[in-house]
Amino acid sequence: KTLTGQFRIGGMTCSACVSSIEGILTKLPGVKRAVVALTTSSGEVEYDPSVITKDEIVCAIEDAGFDAAFLQ
Ligand code: 9UX
């Protein structure tokens, strides 16, 4: 089972931030795909909720020094 979640990301100021966050997310167990957009300060992940939670995904982004919050 795979869910898609959208989230807001604060604190990204250059395109290297985007690559950095995408790399962090893609390496997380249970995350199948991650796309981050600088212009909209947002991102989307496909993840397996039996392996990783939204809170864990948000924590991984915040550990890298950004603000993050899932929509809905
Ligand atoms: Mo750009 Mo982002 O110099 O953490 S990589 S601001």
UniProtKB/TrEMBL annotation:
Subcellular location: Membrane
Coiled coil location: none
Limits of the HMA domain: 3-69
Family: Belongs to the cation transport ATPase (P-type) (TC 3.A.3) family. Type IB subfamily.
Protein name: P-type Cu(+) transporter
